[in-house]
């Protein structure tokens, strides 16, 4: 007769579930960074009305926003092998799909997803900066690149900071879906320990607490960054 | 000397500039006046290529371009030779007052930090804002912001400064401090083209008034001549309306 709640088991499974943290962080951070790059390019295509690219961006954003993440993960999971077979057929190469670790599939899927959401947030943050500042930057002779890097983006990042931070926290939690592709992140590890002992509730409680703590730590970090970003402007520079 | 010839500009199907000729002699101040929507801002923006003219030629000192040849390089060359003061200030909100003035000196003109700072401080002194040099724009009044924008324009040492309604966004009590600074700049023989609705100021400061209506310059004359004896009916109507408004506010 087993216990209703096995506290000792719960404590025991902490170390193994903790091992999932690097995977969780890897997927979240890499997907976020790639997402920022995709999002910035998408935002510029939309803002500058680049023909064709603007339409492609529109369809991409709409598709990602209109489909569940888990479905996107499955699509990538099955699309990549097909894609590689096509390449092999076309070019007579012999790439082996099993060479590619599952986590790479997840990085592709999460980056694509993040890119779409961040396209919209980055676009909104850039458009929140009064257009006359960009014109002023041009009028003094700056290039678009200089104006973006020195004037517009620093302000857009500050405005978008809370949105980006929220998105990152969401992403961090969404990475738990990577267990579906057998990636040993926090949720994946919890599932493995839990399955071995047939004690699921205990393992998932540990997983939940770990996610929670990571998010709290991250929120603290963001709060410090925001405070620092605002400090200068209140006091003026010495 | 600045010389515009046959400038045309349409937005979609509406022709906003219908072949404008205008010149500003070196050291001169020309006031561009006319009712709202007549194309004054568009004309100014065709000089520093914030708008791309469809047709026409522009000469800025020794630099010359045709509307057909405009590319990224010509845009930057035109902008290096001009400066603009916007109705909405256009100060860089993430930069201090001094940095606003020095940013382009460092980034565009590639001056050293020390040289840029020296120039910046010198022009902030001219507009009476030395004590605000480390402030951020959001802590300034509208009048102070516009004076910083004027210092930024002057520091570039451009062939011409383009003013687009520099006092229209200001609270009435702040208008004079900005007009005083502009007058001082004009007296220092800086070449200026200024769009304004301040008729007394235009009369006082400009060497010439250019009157614009429906995308054309209908008259260009010295202030005394223009204000006492406008030739076109459009200019007469325009001035009458201004005088009426003036009377009402008394
Ligand atoms: N970017 C634009 N797109 C479409 N129409 C414009 C644009 N800018 C100006 N216009 C139109 O051009 C006309 C002239 O505008 P503008 O040059 O701003 O006049 P003003 O400065 O004399 O008030 C107006 O009818 C305005 O609506
Ligand atoms: Mg205007």
Commentary on this structure:
Chain A has 238 residues and is mainly α. Chain A folds into two domains: 1-20 and 184-238; 22-177, MetI-like fold. In chain A, 79% of the residues lie in helices and 0% in strands. Chain A is built from nine helices and no strands. Chain B is an alpha/beta fold and 250 residues long. Helices cover 41% and strands 24% of the residues of chain B. Chain B has helices at residues 40-47, 72-80, 97-107, 113-126, 142-155, 172-187, 199-205, 223-228, 233-249; strands spanning 2-11, 14-24, 29-33, 55-60, 63-66, 82-85, 160-164, 192-195, 208-213, 216-221. The A-B interface holds A 129-130, 132-133, 135-143, 146, 150-151, 154-155, 158, 232-233, 236-238 and B 48, 50, 72, 75-76, 79-80, 82-84, 86, 88-96, 103-104, 107-109, 134-136, 138-139, 149, 152, 156. Magnesium ion is lined by residues 40-41, 164-165 of chain B.
What keywords describe this structure?
heterodimer; A: 238 residues; mainly alpha; MetI-like fold; 9 helices; 0% strand; B: 250 residues; alpha/beta; 6-stranded mixed beta sheet; 4-stranded antiparallel beta sheet; 41% helix; globular; binds adenosine-5'-diphosphate; binds magnesium ion
Average pLDDT figure of chain B: 94
Give the helix tally of chain A: 9
Strand-residue proportion of chain B: 15-25%
Looking at CATH, the homologous superfamily of the largest domain in chain A is: MetI-like
Low-pLDDT ranges of chain A: none
Q: Give the assembly state of these chains.
A: heterodimer
The number of helical segments of chain B is 9
**Low-confidence blocks of residues of chain B:** none
Overall number of strands of chain B: 10
Number of strands of chain A: 0
Q: Separation of termini of chain B?
A: 40 Å
- CATH class term of the largest domain in chain A: Mainly Alpha
Average pLDDT reading of chain A: 92
Termini Cα gap of chain A: 71 Å
Gyration radius over CA of chain B = 18 Å
The gross shape of chain B turns out to be: globular
